[in-house]
Amino acid sequence: MAVIAEHSAPTTPVPNLRPSGGVTDGIREWLLKRGILWGMTQTPLLAILGGVFFHIGSYRFLVLPMLVSFIALPVWVAYRKKVSTDPDEPVHHLHKYALWALAPAAMFSVSRIPLHYMIGIIYWHPWYDFGTALTGTALGGQDTLAVGGLLNAIQGWSIGVGFYILFKRHSLINVLLYVAVWVSALYSYTFGAYSRVGLKSPPIWHASMAWAHWWMALTLWFIPVFYARRWARLRTGQRATAVAIGALILVIPSIFAQWRAVTWEFPKQTAIDQGLFNRPNLVSLTGTPTLRSTGTDAQYSFALRLGPRDYNNWFKQVRTLDAKDIDVTGTLSQNGTTIAWCDASMGSVPSPNGIVRPLSFPAALQSTKFTDIPVTCRGPAPATQTLQGNPQVTVAWHAQMTLIGGREQQTKEFTGTQTVPVSLSG
Amino acid sequence: MSAFLAQNGVMLLVFGVFLVPAIFSRRMERSDYLTLVIMPIGTFFVAILPGVIIYGFDKDAATYLLGVLIVIAVATLNYRSQRNLNDRDGQTAASAAAAGER
User: Fold this and answer.
1) Rounded CA separation B44/B55 (Å)
2) Phi and psi, residue A269, nearest 5°
3) Per residue in A250-280, pLDDT tens?
4) Do B29 and A18 touch (CB under 8 A)?
């Protein structure tokens, strides 16, 4: 069978398939030549996994080891270059690996642009999580998206550089097994268990992730082959064209994401929010007023119910409509005479939107699908006497609150009047 | 069909199809092979097992194991076939050298 280019760092034509020393020596040599360098270049991945997925610490804190590692990297490279007698050692080729890994990182996203139109895959929505984890800026902002895109590119770059460092042979089989199969399988688990809150992950989603890693793997293989076979023979103009194509691939994911965010995502989420804010009967009286106590004043209570609050946002993630600065006023009256005056205020309603564990979300969502706002009323005690014979009262209420959707906020007023019996058992 | 079988059936097919181009470029050193065996197993204990203990074994954990099995099986088959090829090449070269000496 024909074997296509087999670029690799080794200069020796016949691979050494046997260990040259003991196991301990082999591990020590591997660590010095590849392991430590690989570990240093994987800190961006470890930061995002630890900070955004596993939540073992804040991402901003976990960025510190990344910065330390990137400061220490030139020192380690200089040291190894000085003591290394092996021309195949990755430190001698790190500058090339760093450049070669750029375009494959972008191909991870570029390859999903067609899937966006074909099956609705949205590759940039996790970027908001990455961006906000570092900067604290609001989800849904273009600045958050830009920072998240950069972090995503750095993570992809880490995987690519990691492959070039770890593997002596940059063959298709190595890169496909490492990136297209293993990294895809790792993503399938970590995204499902630790990241995709309120999202379904059907088989097509898992396949699309593998598709993206497959293209990334093919590009990781192609670039060294192109460099080894073609680069030296290219004229200046052809080299400039090749670099321009690489640069274009690099920037396309962010440009496309920013463009789609402005022209499609933001209008879509705004329309969803407006639909939410105008849901019929979003605030309604629930149950009946209850006479709580009688003394100098009579005290009653009732509740207004906010909901249903759940909805699907622009990337089909289940979210809840939030509300803050809630103020309620009202009256209880009987036969046209006011028997109690009511008020309530609430800073905000409980929300599951901040939950970071996918498996914790469904129960929290269920408990917040409807939220009751307790309202207390007070009035003269003698008025309760008439309730013994005729418990029917008219509840008139007015509620004002700021509704918070996925992108928009709107202060809205709700009113209602309903004649219901008072429960005297309270 | 259950979601478990549907997802892992699709991913088995996807991984299988995506590995087809590998037949054109199959060089694998011993250290490459060991990396492909050790890395997924080590990651299982560090990144997957804690989640399985907390949340239980689900379809996503099964997809990880499926990927690991494919990586280890394909890498082992490929590495063994390469080693046999190299051994044969080595014997041929040694025979030729011996014949030349005579």
Assistant:
1) 15
2) -65, -35
3) 999 999 999 999 999 999 999 999 999 999 9
4) no
